[in-house]
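Example with several molecule types.
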Amino acid sequence: MNFQIYFDSVPIPAEPGQSVGAALTAAGITAWRTTRREGRPRGLFCGIGICFDCLLTVDSLPGQRACLVRAAPGMKLQTDGGDDEL
Amino acid sequence: MSSDVSVAQLAIVGAGPAGLSAAVSAGLAGVRSVLIDAGARPGGQFWRHSPDAKTGDPKLTDLLQTFESLVAGEVVTYLSGKQVWLIQNPATGGFILQLNNSGTVAEPAPHRVIRAERLLLCPGGYDRQLPVPGWQLPGVMAAGGLQAMLKEHQVRPGTRILLGGTGPFLLPVATALAAAGASVVGICEANTVAGWWRGCREVLSAREILAGKVIEAGGYLAKLAKYRIPYYQGAVITRITGDTHATTATIGRPDGSTIRTVEIDTVGMGWGFTPSMELVLAVGARTRVDVDGSLVAVVNGRQASTVPGVWVAGEATGVGGADKACCEGQLAGLAVAVDLGIKVDAALAVRLQRKIRSWRGFGAALHRAYPVPSNWKDRLTPQTVICRCEEVTYSAVQDAQGELGADSPRLIKLVTRAGMGWCQGRLCGFAVAGLCGNSSVVDHADLAAMSARPLAFPVTLGEIADSSE
Amino acid sequence: MPTSDVIIIGAGMIGAACAYFLSVQGFSVQVVDRGGVAGGTSSAGEGNILLSDKEPGPELDLALYSQKVWRGDLAEFAPLYEFENKGGLVVAAGQSSALALTRLAELQKSQGIRSESIAYDDLPRLEPRLTRAAISGVFYPDDAQVQPMLAVTHLLRLARQHGAKVTTYQPVVGFAAATAGARDVLTTSGRFSAPIVINAAGPWSGQVAELAGGYLPVLPRRGFVMVTEPQPGMVRHKVYAAEYVSDVASSDAALQASPVVEGTPAGPILIGSTRERVGFDRTNSLPALRALAANAIALFPALEQLRAIRSYSGFRPYCPDHLPVIGEDPLVPGLWHVSGHEGAGIGLAAGTGKLVAQVIAGGVPDLDLTPFAAHRFRRAA
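Resulting structure tokens for the full complex:
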């Protein structure tokens, strides 16, 4: 039942019902966002949708909470471009 | 647009122990309700579970069985993966709830607006946090977040884990992590088990609760021994270091002296819980400051808030755990039925009220036994991040307090941006209020101001523009 | 015994500017507020220092003077409160509003306001994400902005350095005539006494005037502001639609919404503006938020996918003729009303504070204050 999702094009295994944050953690990836002021790495913190620290882009939709979004086969994750200069 | 609007006798927000109990209790009495929850599955933070694994808690299994039959019978409409970003209570009566997707459900139901005659708020809460140097590093998480990763997502969040904070919640997190194969290098409990025991004895009216809790605590302590987890009492995590990830943590005494420094890859922290109060405040219900310093709703003996048509149950009436939440939810469900003119089992209501009193007493005793140490600020350095979202440091807060005369959390927020970011002060609100602790002006109004969020959750401008009533 | 030369009721932007200029002049100043610093209108706006939205008249004269003070007397403090010379772009969606806009810009030019007409093809150069439905615009290089709460707290800090005292969380509950030439201001926990009392209580200044036995017809006009997730660079200036000017000058009680969209140094985009006369009603309003969102998307279509993370509301202090009041109450000698700046209080504060200090020192003010006199209003019989 396991499937793959992609983090910046790298395949990562995931299980049904698992959050993308959990799948990334299981793959040893614990940071995927860079803060806009200090440029510091961030990943999961509260783990339950409260802190918004774990934001990333899911299938081109920026600013999604990695701790909440459920992994789906073929899902494409990217470090969040939401704070980049346009 | 009108196809998006659903009408209900009762809207229940939150499907944790309180909301689930309420939906079942009201449903069995014949009240039709809509239950809205941000999670993918009912159970809330307490009864997190994966799709196939049951939690093993027979109480949840029972509740879910009845709940599912009520959903099948269309007595309860269950909306998962939805969050309420705005509530209106128009002068014409009733409540209008604006919903958007939380992200937990791939294709959630299309509901966007719920109109309900009555409203039951069971928003639950989340781990309360105190800033500590290095807590912004990846690898540092809320204790509840580590638990969610294990229970709901089947992932062990790290291999060498240190837990710190206060309260009995750290124990099940530690033993669950150890059972999953992690090496838990320690639990830093700022208070002591002796304090807990003293606190428990205060609540003699809650003897039956006490017996159960002592057995539960004994079980955890036995497991700590089994997994060889060091339990540091009267100890705190004083510092976390690392470059791009947490690699070491220092265990120390509250006075600043160091006990030891440990190599870790993960840290979990929790200082009790903070109830989610934005919806309670949005409807204009009166609030108060509880024993633990949390803002909570004022409710009467039937869980009714000060706003007609609004009931509140669970952590939002006072942090007290799942058993209290279940009783309150069940009672609130009955109260709504009574409000609709339905006859209910009055003896059951009285029994629930008695239990709720006991649980509240027990909760208050716990809060007194596991206070946030008043000297937590002593561990902060000028560079310590206070507000994670806006990266506001302790020195920036001190400058605001000193030369700018910012004498309230509100003003600290306005001049430093602490609490203005993505989480809207959910994480730093308690700490910022605490940093004003020496001032006499920190009061209920300030806490309420820091907890009010006219937009309860982020919502796209497109969703706002398309909203309907 | 007087406790100071001047008592200022209200620790908002206007009170802070008055406190600064008076204390610099050597007056001893006592500021008192029923709540915290910047607890009212000052923390509920966007920090505008605008020229573009003013039609020729006394308010424009005050705005021009105030700009000079912000950029002159206060220049050295500009970085402390994020003074940003961001420039304003006013855009028109139709031929008639384009014409009206050009006409206003010409009138303003005769008063000394710099502006530049922007043709359709040049709009993307200024604002790449602006809707292509806008047919033309006028750019005002001197429209500026400050972080208003920082402006208030820093001006009060500077005033304190010159000896001013700031007392917060003490509501004024009454007035009393004290010794000859002085007036007592009674608060819930104290008593201050001074020959001059300045009423800078913003939308609540009418109530303060009444407590003193005076009269000031200042009323609240509610406004909402919405703040998005950080998105640096998406909106580069203060951008608004030409209809904004007519809404500002209108006296309609119903909800009016005209889009004002701007980026901030901190990253989030601020979205205004709404105007309603609903008293001091703080209830959240979905119709207001919906209007803000729809208008902002109309101006910047890319905003549709951006999330709002918070909103706030506040009350603009306005007079029936939409002009500020800067003058002594004809019924209560020694009581000066400095209020009614409506939605322009941050921008007008610097000039107002300096002018108030000049007249209280007995000098001739740089700008004729006659149009702002308090005695232009009469209590209805």
